[in-house]
Amino acid sequence: MSTDHTMPDETSGRNGMSVQPKPRVTAAEYLAAERLAVTKSEYYAGEVFALAGTSKEHNLIVTNLVALLVPRLRGRCSVFASDLRVKVQASGLYTYPDVAVVCGKPEMEDGHLDTLLNPTLLIEVLSPTTEKYDRGRKAEHYRRVETLREHLLIAQDQPHVQRYRRHGQRDWMMTEFSDFEETVELDSIECTLGLGDIYADVLPR
After folding, report:
1. Residue 163 and residue 150 in contact, taking contact as beta carbons nearer than 8 Å
2. Cα 194 to Cα 205: distance, rounded to the nearest angstrom
3. Measured by CB atoms within 10 angstroms of the end CB, which terminus of the chain is less buried, N or C?
4. Cα dihedral sign, 190-195-124-78
5. What DSSP character marks residue 139?
6. 19 DSSP assignment
7. Rg of the chain's alpha carbons, rounded to an integer?
8. How far apart are alpha carbons 66 and 81 in whole angstroms?
9. How far apart are CA 117 and CA 94, in angstroms?
């Protein structure tokens, strides 16, 4: 999901000018407003960040992923598209991954049942305006989710998938896939995804 924001520790504006701090809000205030809002926003460290729109290619890739995963995981894992919020409990980030998968019983933050706490796999489709954030700070947050076992970053303008797999508590191994004939093995959910299927109707082969 594209995010139109600067993270809170980035306090310099254009030309090095200082940016006036935004009013801080609590997580409870954010959630109350978010549940009534037409558009979605992220929340971190007292600040709210609007989520930008996504491209046709981005949406097609997400649709392909959900269509591939749901029938293969039915009865074992739950697949959620970008409308479900995820909270990183270790850092307090509330965000909307493009796809979240949880194997076992989903753990929700409260009775509203709209904020997932225990994802097994998280997938982000990269956008030009948010790629740096998705690869950097956001990925750092995701790696602090204790239940997370794998994390995928998927390019939308070329066949390129990066798989990050957890090894132990702090170690992650990255593997890249860049050929339509390659298959991404997802041990965390006992499933495989072909690049040709991920990019079906998105990129010419």
Report:
1. yes
2. 13
3. C
4. negative
5. H
6. P
7. 17
8. 7
9. 10
